[in-house]
Amino acid sequence: MNTKVSVAKSFKQNDHLLILADVKNFEWTKELVSDSEKSFIKKAAKDDVPYVFLPQINRYIIVQFLHKKGSPAELLEDTRVAGNDILALLSHYKINTITILNRQKKGNNILEYLEGMALGNYKFLKYFKDKKEKESCLKTIRIEAKAVDVAEVALLKATMEATCVARDLVNEPLSYLSAEKFSEEIVKQGKANGFKTTVFRKKKIETLKMGGILAVNKGSSQPPTFNILDWHPSNAKNKKPIILVGKGVVYDTGGLSLKPTANSMDSMKSDMAGAATVVGALIAISKAKLPVHVMGLIPATDNRPGKDAYVPGDVIRMHSGSTVEVLNTDAEGRLILADALHYAKKFDPELVLDFATLTGSAAKAVGPEAICFMGNVKNGLKEKINRSGDAVYERLVEFPLWREYGDYLKSNIADLKNLGGSSAGMITAGKFLEHFTDYPWLHFDIAGTAYLKQANSYRPKEGTGVGVRLLFDFLKNYNS
User: Fold this and answer.
1) Where are the domains positioned within the chain?
2) In angstroms, rounded to a whole number, what is the distance separating the alpha carbons of residues 300 and 183?
3) Which of 50, 14, 54 is nearest to 34 (CA)?
4) What's domain 4-145's architecture?
5) What is the pLDDT of residues 36-47, one digit of tens each?
6) Nearest of 377, 358, 369, 415 to residue 396 by alpha carbon
7) What is the pLDDT averaged over residues 141-150?
8) For residue 261, is pLDDT > 80?
9) pTM to 2 decimal places
């Protein structure tokens, strides 16, 4: 994360201050501003100005008005957006350290404001020659201690740092992040944060007869990996693990079914965003030491049209023993996920959640505003994950998995085919995955939200790290 976050017991006379304020409460002004400045602040509030900038002799003071309109989820999101929007002003005045005070009479959403500011301050500068010149001006955000619970700040820092790691992984090009290098990065993160990582190489994958992963990898000159991440604290409240599965296609050309549309390959380094979500979630969970047993399964490979590549018409035998007729080699993500979903059975999971940039249909259906999801879970778990989606504003839209969609996947020569047809593409992809599950399971298609061509407030251009905050909130409240 580009920004250091700390809790301040006090502030000095020359500290730059950012004050979160109501539009009708000005009692706080006598401690910090002059009478003339107070009059200016009151007029700005009356005129519906979003913030006031006050240059004082030894410091700057910014008064941020937070309006109370909309649903609870919208109010929190508006606060994050306001935190991001103030970054331009801080940069203009070259403010590298800011202390945030809460002077709202009712409510305290200082953490959401901090979240929008810190996540919006993210930059991926690794490959710039002049990276020092391009760095964000803001280096440190301090929060007044009396406004926050220190433990809550620590949890937020864990999720923000993990989200930024996920963004970094998505932004890395294939020239660096091959499947094997991805595994090295996962191992490094595991050692740094306290979760265990086991990496299966190609020979082990062959021994396990993971036909989906091996088929997709056939056209590549670089070997695949299968990664098992495990956070198992001694105080875990769940006896059986919750398993997160992430699609790790580190680059997708479409294989021999080469992506046909203009610019459609430009962003395909992001086809491992589901895997990045899983890595980020394990980082956040282990940093925060959540009392929950969580595992991650990440099949990783690139999908290329090399001389030995699998072809449309091939029949492959999956890890489960089921056979799949390949109609399109660009429907590869479901093949590697299917092997991972079947492998999950050996752990007798309590719940399995998979994340994948799986279909263009998902992006077309809901755009970058939501995640498409579907699955078979009961006992209020869908309601819980929806609440988490609203809380972090990574909203969810459920699609059905009716039995009729299974007919779309019937093959004349194999147990099923890997493509359902021109309609209901995201659903038939989910229906394909369902075939390999026999446990409580939810599938999340993040194709529209994982990689943006233009920044959306605190969600940057390119990798967004979507799903990390959602999963952390869900798992933090899982046993409550």
Assistant:
1) 4-145, 157-476
2) 8
3) 54
4) 3-Layer(aba) Sandwich (3.40)
5) 999 999 999 999
6) 369
7) 94
8) no
9) 0.97
The total of other beta-carbon atoms located within 10 Å of residue 469's CB is 27
* Tokens 């403010």 belong to residue: 95
Give me the torsion for CA of 18, 22, 24, 29, rounded to 10°.
-30
Share of the chain above pLDDT 70, in %: 100
Percentages helix, strand, coil for the chain (3-state, rounded to 5) are 40, 20, 40
Cα dihedral 473, 272, 449, 390, rounded to 10, equals -10
- 365 neighbors 372 (Cβ within 8 angstroms): yes
Q: Report which DSSP code applies to 261.
A: S
H-helix or E-strand containing 295? Answer: strand 294-303
- 314-338 as b/e: b if 16+ CB within 10 A: bbbbbbbebbbbbbebbbbbbbbbb
Q: Which of 59, 139, 259, 382 is catalytic?
A: 259
What is the arithmetic mean of pLDDT over 462-477? 98
Strand partners, 468: none
Is 346 a residue of the active site? Answer: no
- Model pLDDT for residues 197-252, shown as the tens digit of each residue: 999 999 999 999 999 999 999 999 999 999 999 999 999 999 999 999 999 999 99
The label of the residue with tokens 């680059």 reads 251
Structure tokens at 308: 């030995």
334 in active site: yes
Is the Cβ–Cβ distance between 356 and 337 less than 8 Å?
yes
pLDDT tens by residue, 425-450: 999 999 999 999 999 999 999 999 99
Identify the CATH homologous superfamily for domain 157-476: Zn peptidases (3.40.630.10)
Backbone angles phi, psi at 411, to 5 degrees: -115, 150
Q: How many residues in total does the chain contain?
A: 480
Distance, CA of 470 to CA of 460 (rounded, Å): 17
Q: Which of 80, 202, 334, 469 is catalytic?
A: 334
- List the beta strands (DSSP E) in 151-293: 196-200, 225-231, 242-246, 248-252
Mean pLDDT of 25-51: 93
Distance between CA atoms of 238 and 480, rounded to whole angstroms? Answer: 12
Query: Which residues in 211-242 are b (16+ Cβ under 10 Å) and which e?
Result: bbbbbbbbbbebebbbbbbbbebeebebeebb
Distance CA 104, CA 24 (A): 9
The Cα 160–Cα 179 span in angstroms is: 25
Residue 59's SS3 state is coil
Nearest-angstrom CA–CA distance, 433 and 337: 7
